[in-house]
Amino acid sequence: MNKTKIFFDTEFTGLHQKTTLISIGLISDTGKKFYAELDDFDNSQVDEWLEENVTSKLFIRNPEVVIPDDIEYHIGNMDHIKKALLEWLSRFDEVEMWSDCLAYDWVLFSEIFGHAFNIPENVYYIPFDICTLFKVMDVDPDIGRESFADIGDSDFKHNAIWDAQVIKACYDKLSKKQML
């Protein structure tokens, strides 16, 4: 049986050991989407760059944004997000997780469940990184993701659901390249 590929991204309060999760976005290879914004992240860690590029793009801070019906959207604390994510992930038999520069993403994903030993049993314990796939496919891993995927820029770059969709689009394009 093939595993469902889920492409995910997290936004967080900085590239340091005590970072806290701001949001998480996931999209399956079949197009199912989950997006959550946490209301209990450590706001004292948010610097000017994060405010301008990440927290300002949270849906909760942009009430004029119409959230598409195909996105399962949640706002809440870590416990609420954990319950919602567990329910969403339970819809898949076997899951393979993909991210972009995934070191922090995977640690924060695992932390939602307490630690890596508590991730749902249907989620494969080894995550995969689109950066490595770029390198293997002889594409510069530092390439601009939106331009590579031919999807254009968005005002919501650094929004976790947008970035998850970009990761999926890059994976889809790389997969087609591999078939050639």
Task: Outline the fold blueprint.
Elements lengths: L3 E9 L8 E8 L4 E6 L9 H6 L17 E6 L1 H12 L5 E5 L3 H10 L15 E2 H7 L8 H5 L10 H20 L1
Parallel strand pairs: 1-5, 3-4, 5-6
Antiparallel strand pairs: 1-2, 2-3
Description of the structure:
This protein has 180 residues and is an alpha/beta fold. It has one domain (4-179): Ribonuclease H-like superfamily/Ribonuclease H (Nucleotidyltransferase, domain 5, 2-Layer Sandwich). 33% of the residues lie in helices and 20% in strands. It has helices at 48-53, 78-89, 103-112, 130-136, 145-149, 160-179, and strands spanning 4-12, 21-28, 33-38, 71-76, 95-99, 128-129. A 6-stranded mixed beta sheet has the order 4-3-2-1-5-6. A hairpin with an 8-residue loop joins β1 (4-12) and β2 (21-28). The longest helix is centred in the C-terminal third of the chain and has 20 residues, at 160-179. It is globular. It starts with a strand and ends with a helix. 29% of the residues are buried. The model has no long low-confidence stretch (mean pLDDT 93).
Q: Please give the domain count.
A: 1
Structural class: alpha/beta
Strand content: 15-25%
CATH class: Alpha Beta
